[in-house]
Amino acid sequence: MLAVPSSRIPSAFTRVTQIEMAKQIYTIGWLINSEDRKYAYLPAMLAASSLALASTLLTGLIFNLQGFTRRAQSFVEVRTSELKEANRSLSVAHQILHEKETEARKLALIASRTVNSVVLTDANGRIEWANDGFTRMTGYTLEEAKGRKPGVLLQGPGTDEETARHMHHELSHGRGFIVEVLNYKKDRTPFWMQIEVQPLHDESGRLVNYMGIHTDVTERKQAQQEAEEARRLAEEANRSKGVFLGNISHELRTPLNVIIGNLHMLLQGMHGPLPPAQAKALERVHENSTAF
Question: Is the pLDDT of residue 251 over 90?
Answer without folding.
Answer: no
